Amino acid sequence: MKKIVFYLSIAIFTFLIFHFFFSPNKKLKTVPKAEKIGIVKTIKDIKIKDVKHPLNASIENYLDDYIVAFRIDENKSSYIAISFLDKNFEEIGNYKKIDVQTNTAEDPRIFKFKNDYFLFYNDVLPIKHFARAMNLAKINLQDYSLDYKTTLDLHIKRVEKNWVPIICEEKNLLLAYKLMPHKIMLLKDLKKNSLKHLIFENIGFSRFFWEWGTPRGGTPAKQIDGEYLAFFHSSFGKRKKRKTYVMGAYTFEAKPPYKITKVSKFPIILGSLKKTRIYFPTGFVIKKENNKDLIYLSFGENDKTSKIAIIDKKKLFENMKQVY
Predict the structure, then answer these.
(1) Among 160, 203, 240, 243, which one has the highest count of C-beta atoms within 10 angstroms of its own C-beta?
(2) Per the structure, how many domains does the chain have?
(3) Number of alpha helices (DSSP H) and beta strands (DSSP E) in the chain
């Protein structure tokens, strides 16, 4: 009996030590909530009719309204769908599944480039061993088909995810492969796997300290105030199924070598940490209301829902630090 009590005491002590000293939430305990310091004004749910869990929805402007692309998980398969939202983020019409010729596509980002709309997502390669690559697909919004799909593979990693489209109407499409260091690729022909890694002379690597895991891509990057702005995600925690995912913002130069200039001082945390373990940024649009610049950021929460955070751009930038 004494041995049972002893081992039970050890188990309880170990659990308490882990919970109070190694719990992922401990790393976020001192991080201020974005709503309390004015970065986030309000949060809206993205609700899609007949879809219980529209996952990781990505927003883009469409005429005077918005278009969103999202993932649907059904029967151990995953699909991409799009729908339209009005100015109040209420759905217009019904969602449409996009036929990408697979049932394994994940986490689309939607963006507009030179008057056309594109999906950028990862999917399983049709080979014997498991591998994922990024895919660029041009959407035909007349019949919701794909005009073409291009698989982009650098043969670097077995699983590729979360590249960042860099949106500039006057130039070729650029893609950020990594944030640290900021590795930029050029894609001149959107219909070919013709990626070119851009190398710049006399560049000093710009790295920033981020204690909440390795920063990885999130939203497409868009120009604002003469620089590019994008939102990234990172994760930390030893257990894969219990990792905590957070998000932050960063800016980088609009011209080569596209050096990162600013980054969030801390993660953008919304609501209760006890309820939310995963924040996954997917897209944003920039609006002006009452002479104030606002950012409508779409993000996935807990791999269950999609939401939009209405962000005060001035407050967001006030809570970023310079990267040297």
Answers:
(1) 160
(2) 1
(3) 2, 21
List, in order, residues 6 or more apart from 216 with CB less than 8 Å away.
Answer: 161, 162, 179, 232, 233, 234
Backbone angles phi, psi at 283, to 5 degrees: 180, 165
- The three-point CA angle 259-264-265 to 5° equals 120
Q: Output 18-24 pairs: Cβ under 8 A, ≥24 positions apart.
A: 24/236, 24/237, 24/242, 24/243, 24/244, 24/277
Tell me which residue has tokens 């986030």.
Answer: 40
Q: Which domain holds residue 281?
A: 32-322
251 and 227 in contact (C-beta within 8 Å)?
A: yes
Of 135 and 242, the one with more pLDDT: 135
What does each C-alpha distance from 21 to 18, 24, 25, 125 come to in angstroms? 5, 9, 10, 41
Position 26 in a domain? no
CATH number at residue 234: 2.115.10.20
Query: Strand, helix or coil at 19?
Result: helix
Is residue 67 in some structural domain? yes
What is the Cα–Cα distance from 210 to 177, expressed in whole angstroms?
Answer: 18
For 136-146, write each residue's pLDDT tens digit.
999 999 999 99
CB 242, CB 262: distance < 8 Å: no
* pLDDT value of position 20: 43
Q: Are 13 and 21 in contact (CB under 8 A)?
A: no
- Asked if residue 10 is part of any domain, the answer here is no
Q: Is a pLDDT exceeding 60 seen at residue 22?
A: no
Element spanning 2, H or E:
helix 2-17
Is the distance from CB of 323 to CB of 208 less than 8 angstroms?
A: yes
**3, part of any domain:** no
Distances (CA, A) of 314 to 190, 210, 231: 35, 22, 15
Q: What pTM value is reported for the model?
A: 0.90
User: What pLDDT does residue 309 have?
Assistant: 98
In angstroms, rounded to a whole number, what is the distance separating the alpha carbons of residues 48 and 46?
7
Q: What is the DSSP string of 195-247?
A: -EE---TTPPP-----SSS--B--SPBEEETTEEEEEEEEEE-SSGGG-EEEE
